[in-house]
Amino acid sequence: MCVRISPLTEDEAQSVLAARGIGGGHAIRYIEAPDPTRDARPGARVPVYVPSKTGALEVAMLEWGFPLDGRPHAVFNTRIETALDQLRLGRRGMWAKAIRDGRCLVPVRAFYESHRTETVPSDRTGRPVRRQYRFRLPGARAFLLAAVQLDGRFSVVTTEPNASVAPVHDRMPLVLGPGESGVWLGEDFAKLSSRDQVRLLANPER
User: Fold this and answer.
1) Which domain holds residue 138?
2) Which label site among 47, 73, 107, 172 has the fewest CB atoms less than 10 Å from its CB?
3) What does pTM read for this prediction?
4) Tens-digit pLDDT profile for residues 164-185
């Protein structure tokens, strides 16, 4: 379950879009260890790439998490298997419309997962808490997570873990590799639910 990401700023996200198709240089700088004070958790407003009416991508500032039972950001991950089942079977679940009409992209420098069993003392209370692991794409300044959005909110799409994440957690965000952002936003997006995930670098948070 992804409850923390290192998003780009709105200006960085805009710069990446502006630099597409332009050779030479990079739109944003490489950061070895993202600043944890800039990390986002459910409830935060995060820059997200959404298709415009013309089909071109644009940046939208969306809230992370959908409401449920009076809680404003209670549901912040979307199991791709559940969403595809709702869509295929014509069910009126909370993800059917979002995955049909609201597929989008979240540009990040890293995402975090909590280890299933490994613990460390909390800085605040001293009590044991599950250790967080930061996952990055090797050598990348940023990469894209598949997501769905509706009514000004978004949710990170999750899938089965790859070899990098499996030792830490039983789910992971759907990380999009080269050329896959267009697939996710296109008609054949469902095929991304059954392909090998790109390999990632894992670093335990100290």
Assistant:
1) 5-204
2) 73
3) 0.94
4) 999 999 999 999 999 999 999 9
